[in-house]
Every structure is written in structure tokens, then in C-alpha cells.
Amino acid sequence: MHTFVSADTCFADGYQDSLLMKDTGKILIIIGIIAIALGLLLWVSGDKFKWLGRLPGDIRIQRDNFRFYAPITTMLLLSLVISLLLFIIGKFFK
To answer: Checking CA distances to 78, which of 21, 37, 38, 52 falls within 20 to 30 Å?
Structure first.
């Protein structure tokens, strides 16, 4: 049998709430550092990641006055990489 606890009970004192905010701040800083590192990597590498966005499964439709682009495979690949990075980072904080 599961016991459900309301949010009011969990964060009744300000101490637990401040701990939650500190953890959130750390996570946001780490995500920012990762984003900066990836941006610098792409900037420095130049044409080495030219294939990114042109994978099989990325949809590209061009007409005279219309252009549609949906990088489905690229989004799935980036989602997988980011999820793995966050999983590994999460292991260090537990």
C-alpha cells in the first residue's frame, strides 16, 4: 500500500525548499557549462560535424517559395546523447 504525501507536508519548513533550490541551481550551472563546451567544440571543429543535421531520416522538402526541414534523426541522436550525459552526471551527485 502506497502512502501519498502532499507537497505542503514535504516542504513545510524552508530548509528543504532551500536544498531543492540549491540542487536546481547546480543542475542549471552544469547544463550551462555543457552547452558552452558543446558550442566551443562545434565552433572550433568547423566542418567536422557537417553531417549533423543531414542524417538519414532527417526530412527536407524544398519548393519554389517553400522550405521545410525536420531533423528527426538528428533530434533523436542528440536526445540520446544528452540523456546519457545527464544520467552520468546524476550518478556523481547521488
So the answer is: 21
The pLDDT of residue 82: 86
Domains in the chain, number:
2
- Say if CB 73 and CB 55 are below 8 A apart: yes
Cα–Cα distance between 15 and 67 in angstroms, integer? 52
Specify whether 22 is located in the same domain as 35.
yes
For residue 70, list its beta bridge partners.
Answer: 59
Contact 67, 61 (CB under 8 A): yes
- Domain extent, residue 66, equals 51-94
Nearest to 90 by CA among 27, 25, 19, 1: 27
pTM of the model: 0.54
Q: State pLDDT tens for residues 26-82.
A: 888 988 998 899 889 888 987 887 887 888 999 999 999 999 999 999 999 989 998
